[in-house]
């Protein structure tokens, strides 16, 4: 776990460079480069992909942070603390605290607006960027591992990990040495899952015969894997009076949206995808 990779001296202070923030930037870069390459094959100008990446990143970051702040509002707005201090904590994104599903509505709206503004076919654009989004998610989950968030429950499996004193897993499952008990590296499970889905999405692209099919496949498979991964993760409590976490509930909603998208995609004309 490397919550802080190194520090940069700036005047009289040391500015920490967070592992989470570095991996977040690496995720954006890798996802954008993959989308540019796929966009060329689909006849979309690379400049349009870069512009889309900017707006989707900004909108998605806002949505993912707002979701996290709303879900864990008691950690940001402490009794007796000034509003300035609370907002400063909200703005400290490099320290960690993003919910992937929170990014979907805002990033989706930004992508739709951008496609409409520039006259781009939305479903084709969604097919192009879907693997890049998954690649970015895989790299971002490594950032979660460095930060210690999104952890799994205790296990005696040989690949279990023990997080250092002061980390979220050590608070949840303390051991006598001050470190955490051995827990599932759920962050790395999620990274592997997203990486495999990205490979699958790229592999099925030449076989797709309708625009939107690749994105619909991703929208179907990712919620299923997230529901299963949430069984291992223990950092989220059951929500809304159900035995399911908020992420599992959102996953069920996404599966409903995936079914509607498949209906829409399959109604369209069959055409070879480049």
Structure commentary:
With 274 residues, the chain is mostly helical. It has one domain. The chain is built from 9 helices and 2 strands; from the N terminus they run ββααααααααα. A hairpin with a 2-residue loop joins strand 1 and strand 2. The termini are far apart. The model has no long low-confidence stretch (mean pLDDT 91).
Order of helices and strands: EEHHHHHHHHH
Quaternary arrangement of the chains shown? single chain
User: Could you tell me the number of beta strands?
Assistant: 2
- On the 0 to 100 scale, the average pLDDT is 91
Largest sheet: 2 strands, antiparallel
Summarize the structure.
With 274 residues, this protein is mainly α.
Supply database-style keywords.
two-stranded antiparallel ribbon; 61% helix; mainly alpha; 9 helices
List the helices and strands and how they pair.
Elements: E1 4-10, E2 13-18, H1 19-41, H2 46-71, H3 83-91, H4 100-117, H5 122-147, H6 168-172, H7 186-204, H8 213-232, H9 246-267
Antiparallel strand pairs: 1-2
Helix pairs in contact: 1-2, 1-5, 2-4, 5-7, 5-8, 7-8, 8-9
């Amino acid at each position: 776990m490397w919550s802080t990779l190194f520090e940069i001296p700036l005047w009289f202070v040391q500015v920490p460079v967070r592992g989470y923030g570095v991996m977040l930037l690496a995720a954006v870069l890798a996802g954008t480069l993959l989308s540019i390459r796929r966009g060329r094959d689909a006849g979309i100008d690379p400049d349009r992909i870069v512009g889309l990446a900017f707006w989707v990143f900004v909108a998605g970051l806002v949505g993912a942070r707002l979701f996290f702040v709303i879900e864990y509002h008691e950690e940001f707005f402490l009794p007796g603390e000034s509003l300035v201090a609370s907002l400063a904590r909200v703005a400290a994104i490099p320290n960690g605290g993003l919910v992937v599903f929170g990014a979907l509505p805002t990033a989706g709206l930004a992508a739709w607006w951008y496609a409409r503004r520039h006259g781009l076919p939305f479903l084709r654009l969604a097919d192009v960027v879907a693997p890049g989004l998954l690649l970015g998610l895989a790299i971002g989950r490594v950032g979660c591992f460095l930060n210690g968030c999104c952890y799994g429950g205790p296990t005696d499996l040989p690949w279990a990990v023990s997080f250092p004193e002061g980390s979220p897993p050590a608070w949840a499952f303390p051991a006598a040495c001050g470190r955490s008990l051995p827990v599932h590296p759920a962050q790395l499970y999620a990274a592997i899952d997203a990486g495999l889905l990205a490979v699958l999405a790229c592999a099925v692209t030449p076989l797709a015969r309708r625009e939107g099919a690749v994105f619909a496949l991703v929208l179907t498979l990712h919620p299923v894997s997230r529901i299963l991964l949430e069984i291992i993760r223990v950092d989220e409590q059951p929500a809304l009076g159900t035995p399911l976490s908020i992420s599992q509930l959102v996953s069920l909603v996404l599966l409903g949206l995936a079914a509607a998208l498949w209906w829409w995609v399959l109604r369209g004309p069959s055409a070879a995808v480049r």
